[in-house]
Amino acid sequence: MAYRMQGAIPEAVDISIESKSTFDLYGEGSKTAGTFANNCIMARRLAERGVKFIQLYHQGWDQHGGCAKGVKKQCQEVDQASAALIMDLQQRGLLDDTLVLWGGEFGRTAYSQGKLTKTDYGRDHHPRCFPMWMAGGGVKGGTIFGKTDEFSYNIDSEEKMHVHDFHATVLSLLGIDHERLTYKFQGRSFRLTDVHGEVKHELFT
Known about the structure:
Blueprint: H1 9-12, H2 20-26, H3 36-48, H4 67-91, E1 100-102, E2 107-108, E3 125-126, E4 133-135, H5 163-173, E5 183-185, E6 188-190
Antiparallel strand pairs: 1-4, 2-3, 5-6
Helix pairs in contact: 3-4
């Protein structure tokens, strides 16, 4: 049953009652409202209360310059908290039926953009290939699917995960057959995965 948000939001997002060990798990900034770590704790609290879909954002990854400092700071803000969320869900018995997705809107080039110095460089947008990870919710832990060429420029044609395949796979993990969502309009079939999408059962437990 979906969590009744009316009148319960203050309790759901009140992390002041969390233990010191929880704050230590999520790391620096987890007590500060608006940080990614703080939002991860609130995400776990919402999941505990039956909220079906929870989305977290972390901005600032559009680094066409200043990667050396910028990416380090970004990773400090998200890495520990992301791992903590997985561990926290698992230790509370919530991970098996909670699917966690982590990714961005597209990748970044593996090569430098702009002037390259010892302390500064950037990376451009790169939609051809980029990583995403999933945990829980019927996903087989430790499985790697897909690879790039040796330059990380294109996907390897022998083993690839198209975005439509990814969406079909995620929908399947949520119990939805993406092909049953097809509808006809002006003589063409439409669905969330366009007219494509292959479920990658290799990723399932």
